Amino acid sequence: MRSAILIYAIAGLAVSSPLLPRQSSFDWTAIDAATPPAVQGPPAFVSSDPVDFNPAAAASSAAAQAAVSPPSVAKRSLLKKRDCEQQPAGAAPTTSPDTDAAFLQNSEYDDIAQNAPVPQGYSLSFSDVQGAVEGPSYLGYYTLNSFDTVKCQEYCDTAPACYGINVYIERDASEIPADACPNPASTVNYKCSLWGSAVSSDMATNVGQWQDQFHVVITGSNGYTKNAAPPSYQNFTGPIELGGAIQAPSGYMGSSFFSGPYDPSQCAAVCQAATEYDKEHLVNSDGTYDACNFFNAFVLSDNNVPQGIECQYYTQAWDKSYSTNYGQYRDTDYWSVSSSYGYSLAPQDPGHI
């Protein structure tokens, strides 16, 4: 995962001045510089795409400020497929007549989606839409034997940094479409995709694709969001649930932005690395340095579609009364804050050699 880390201490941008930068807005430079993950949804012609996001590796990369490539797509690249190769039969009922229009009008799929149970520990975000979730927080997906929301929840609960699931019904080709079989009969699959953020209907923009003359389409799409705070991290107390993002009157050090799953461990790693850098390179004549004692991690969304995790760093802890930045416009797009949590270093670093 490539990140844009603009912590002033690590970047060495304030060597000549002990003053901290003023907090005014989201750091659009960091956001624009972040490279989105290469894979933003389930690939075609594979039955599963297990999660390979590694929080420890992501945190290590963030702390080292190493410019790394986006997540490897080798595992997710399609195996070489042969024209007209038979595909596994899906577990969902097929539609007659076998057309995309008939599939989308099949009320049986609506009934399946609308009667599915909401998994324990999750909330229903949207129900029975004709589009699947896609975006930068994609983690992986599985093909199911039924519209099994609980099984999808179990996949999410065992995956790192998973906060949302999407269960849906997809019309797929029974053979790889090619010149000799441009529009094969369909097979219908139940699918479960995992997401490193809350999910919403605004993210359900994958309405299918054309494969030669065969039309892949989606219906019965349900989204569920986990009702849980992010984990705690070594050397920090928290998480403390906030409202919006912290808007502090002082002590702001800078921010970093990571396109991909919501993983505050990256913020924790950068916070500690910033302090170590200051101790080694930015000690003032009186023996003081700027120590990162608190960070605020939150999901930043563009028009309600999560783009990644924003981390903001402070020399002191701030409480919920300062979490007043719920979002702001950038041109005509509204960038909003969600899943905002604070973590305090324990014990606090006095910032003095």
Helix percentage: 10-25%
Helix/strand-derived category reads alpha+beta
Shape: elongated
* Average pLDDT taken over every residue: 85
Largest sheet: 7 strands, antiparallel
Radius of gyration using CA atoms only: 23 Å
Beginning-to-end CA distance, first to last residue = 34 Å
Strand content: 25-35%
Order of helices and strands: EHHEHHHEEHEEEEEEHEEEE
Number of helical stretches of at least 4 residues: 7
How many strands appear in the DSSP assignment?
14
Low-confidence parts: 1-19, 66-79
Keywords for this entry:
single chain; about 350 residues; about 30% strand
Topology:
Elements (H helix, E strand, L loop, with lengths): L2 E3 L2 H4 L16 H6 L14 E2 L5 H10 L35 H5 L2 H8 L7 E8 L8 E7 L4 H9 L6 E10 L12 E10 L13 E3 L2 E13 L9 E6 L10 E7 L6 H17 L12 E9 L2 E10 L12 E4 L2 E13 L8
Antiparallel strand pairs: 1-10, 2-4, 3-8, 4-6, 5-6, 5-8, 7-8, 9-14, 10-12, 11-12, 11-14, 13-14
Helix pairs in contact: 3-7
Report on this structure.
By secondary structure, the protein is of the alpha+beta class. The protein is 17% helix and 30% strand. It is built from seven helices and 14 strands. The strands form two sheets. Strands 1, 9, 10, 11, 12, 13 and 14 form a seven-stranded antiparallel sheet that branches. Strands 2, 3, 4, 5, 6, 7 and 8 form a seven-stranded antiparallel sheet that branches. A hairpin with a 2-residue loop joins β13 (327-330) and β14 (333-345).
Task: Briefly summarize what is shown.
Helix content is 17%, strand content 30%.
